[in-house]
Every structure is written in C-alpha cells, then in structure tokens.
Q: What sequence folds into this?
C-alpha cells in the first residue's frame, strides 16, 4: 500500500495558468484604453447633449430660492472649462459656476436676492463624450419675486470716434427706483447685445468698456455712454451707444492751417461733436489792419475717417424703442465751468450718472432724474438731432479734431482776429475761441490766445 502524498498548500502555477492571467490582464488593459464606440450595428451618435431638466424650472417664480441653480443634461458633458468667463448673467454680479458629470451649477457669490429676475445664457459649444457640440445657446430664466414679462432690449455699442464695435463691452440698467443690483448684458464680437425679460420700468442704461472687470463703470478712465430707457410690460427697445473717452476739460485750439486762401482749418486737442449747430457759434473773422470783416460761407466739423467694415446698424431690423434724447451724456461734474456758472440744464442726467459711482441716494435720483424735472433753457443736448424711435442709425457722421471755415472772399496778407463763441467736444464740454494769426500762414502755425 502506497503512502499518501502530502499536497503543498501553495503550489506553483502552471504555465497554462500564468498565460491565462497574462491574457486577462492584457484584455483588461485593452478595454481600459479602448475608445468609446457604439456597439456593432448601432447608428453612430451625432446628437449633441440636450437639457433634461433645470432647477428652478424655466420661467418659474421661486421666492426665497436657495442653493444653486442647476441645468441637467441627458448625457455626460464636456467643454465647460471656460464657462466662468463666457457665461452671460443678469443681474450683473459675481457668480460661481461649476460643472459635473452631466450638469452645470450656478450660484451668486453673495447669494440670491429677493424680487429679482435672473437670466443666464450658456454659449454654444457644450459637447458630449463623442464631441457632438450644441449649436445654440442654452437659456435659463426664473424670478425670485416679480412676474416675468415678454420684454426684450437689444442694441449695439461702438466707439464714437471711429465707429468700431466695442467687444467685450458691458451694458448696465439701473432702475430709477434705486435697486441695488443693476441688470446687465454683454456685447458679442460685433458689439451687439440682447437682454430679454428685463422687468418693465424706467432705467438709466450705461454702456462701457469694463477695463478692470469690476462690473462697475469707472467714469474717470473707462469709455462710456448713457441712454434713458422707459420700458413697458411688453416693450421691445433697440438702443445705440457711442462710447467716448472720459474728459473733464473743454476743447483747446492748437493749430491753424490753410488749404488755400479760402479755407481755414482749426485743429483742437479734443474730438469735436459733429452734430453741434455751428450756425449760432458767433464766428467773427476780422483783419486788424483795415478793420474789415471777412464773410464766412460755411463752418463745420471735418468728417472723421470711417474704418472699412459693416456700417453701424446695417444688418439690424428696426424695432420699437423708447429713448430719451433730451438727457444724453452730460458733462462730468467738478469742472471749473460748472462751478462758475452754477447748475446746468442737464443736472438730472449728471445725477443719474452718479448712481453708477454710488454718490447719490436712490430716492433723490428717482425724484430729480426725470426729464420733465430738468430746468428749461437751451443746452448742447437739445441742439443734437434726435434719433428716430425704433431704429438704429444706418449712417452717422464721425467726429474729428478739425473745424473747417469756408470763406466767401480770399484772405489777404495781414493780421487777423478770429472769435468763436462756442465749440463743443464729444463730452459736451464747450469753450470759446479768441485768437490772432498772420496770413500767409506758416506751416503748422500755432494760434495765439
């Protein structure tokens, strides 16, 4: 009888078992590195992700809402890396944006405010794992108090000097009743913006280049423009902004040039308002030796150069708009002229502007910023041709720094005195001219005060 053989508790693996283990490991590694593809015979997925649901629900009213607003998709998503910078959000506030496996969350840094309409637009480009990207923006709108209105405000923001689109540009809408958070919009690459669901009310709207990205207009160094907006319950408005560099000084004459003996060109240190009425400027040109007065046929601002490209408003269809053209951009406060002459007729607009800087109480602004509250009397704003309601300007004159004087008779040799009662720059700051010069003119002759 053969003795029993004691079996080893941990026998060495055979070659066949080791080979099987290596094969399983290789198969697992191959599965891990394999590209995600549909099973054989299935139709390829070419549909971008779509919104499955949102919280709060679209167009819902949720007083006291807390937590994060969330948009959930029907499949995993990618392409959200720069969403913090590209998200369009109103009111203008700081928002925390995060994305998960198949969702996007949005939350104000300081929490949700009561009695506000929130509007978010996620730009196109959200993709699934196969690279299918959304081609249209995704919108989410809800309210923490007021009813939603079918309003829409659109428009364009351009540089006043050359007509170039301002992009990126920010547009803020301050409620005259004194809401602490302004509603806001951003311009696209064409300088155009759109803000739906803006609560119907009276607003001061400001367009500017947010150079320091602090969501506020800094009038000391940021180019800006302002427009008064009255928006009804179903109002549709088209606004046109022409931003201008800040300025606190009136225009100063620098040089006098002559194309020939019938034309004088006065060059100033500021861009001049091309729409000002120079027929009332009180221009007088007199030869000092003889005392003879030279007759002037025409005085106007030389047209500025327009860069090549689409004209302002060329592709935009006219829509209904309300714009207060009697209270366009006022002169900045704290100027010497304002201190000597007292309050100007556009004090209401100046105080509305100061809401941006937080220097005027909202209650006083609501009482004094209305157009009917302004003191009567001529002002540079009233002389500016009004923009027709419902349209954006198809063509407009660009400013320059040169004033052209066309004479009726040729100049003769001698010394001349030139008097100009009023010339206005783009910030509506005005100054007079009283200078002498000798003719024939030397090249780039400087004017004498």
A:
């Amino acid at each position: 009888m053969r003795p029993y053989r004691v079996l080893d508790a941990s026998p060495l693996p055979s070659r066949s078992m080791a080979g099987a283990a290596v094969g399983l490991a290789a198969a697992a590694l191959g599965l891990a590195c394999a590209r995600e593809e549909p099973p054989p015979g299935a139709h390829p997925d070419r549909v971008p992700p779509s919104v499955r649901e949102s919280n709060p629900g679209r167009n819902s009213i949720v007083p006291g809402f807390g937590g994060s607003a969330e948009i959930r998709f029907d499949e995993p998503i990618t392409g959200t890396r720069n969403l913090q910078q590209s998200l369009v959000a109103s009111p203008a506030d700081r928002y925390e944006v995060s994305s998960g496996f198949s969702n996007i969350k949005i939350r104000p840094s300081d929490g949700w405010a009561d009695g506000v309409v929130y509007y978010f637009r996620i730009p196109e480009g959200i993709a699934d794992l196969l690279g299918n990207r959304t081609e249209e923006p995704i919108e989410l709108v809800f309210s923490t108090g007021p009813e939603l209105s079918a309003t829409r405000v659109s428009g364009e923001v351009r540089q006043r000097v050359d007509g170039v689109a301002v992009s990126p540009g920010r547009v803020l809408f301050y409620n005259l009743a004194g809401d602490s958070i302004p509603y806001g919009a951003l311009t696209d690459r064409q300088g155009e913006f759109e803000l739906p669901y803006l609560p119907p009310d009276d607003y001061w709207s400001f367009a500017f280049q947010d150079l320091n990205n602090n969501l506020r207009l800094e009038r000391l160094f940021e180019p800006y423009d302002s427009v008064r907006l009255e928006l009804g319950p179903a109002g549709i408005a088209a606004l046109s902004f022409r931003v201008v560099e800040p300025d606190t000084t009136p225009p100063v004459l620098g040089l006098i040039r002559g194309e020939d003996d019938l034309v004088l060109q006065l060059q100033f240190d500021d861009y001049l308002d091309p729409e000002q009425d120079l027929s009332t400027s009180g221009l007088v040109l007199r030869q000092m030796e003889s005392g003879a007065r030279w007759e002037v046929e025409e005085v106007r601002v030389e047209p500025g150069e327009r860069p090549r490209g689409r004209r302002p408003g060329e592709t935009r269809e006219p829509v209904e708009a309300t714009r207060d053209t009697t209270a366009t951009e006022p002169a900045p406060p704290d100027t010497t002229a304002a201190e000597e002459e007292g309050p100007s007729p556009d004090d209401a607009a100046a105080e509305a502007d100061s809401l941006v800087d937080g220097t005027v109480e909202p209650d006083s602004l609501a009482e004094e910023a209305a157009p009917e509250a302004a003191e009567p009397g001529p002002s540079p704003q009233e002389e500016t041709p009004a923009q027709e309601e419902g349209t954006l300007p198809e063509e407009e004159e660009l400013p320059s720094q040169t004033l052209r004087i066309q004479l009726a008779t040729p100049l003769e040799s001698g010394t001349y005195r030139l008097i100009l009662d009023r010339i206005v720059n783009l910030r509506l700051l005005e100054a007079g001219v009283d200078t002498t010069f000798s003719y024939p003119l030397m090249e780039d002759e400087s004017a004498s005060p």
In short: Residues 205 and 329 are 11 Å apart (CA to CA). The mean pLDDT is 78.
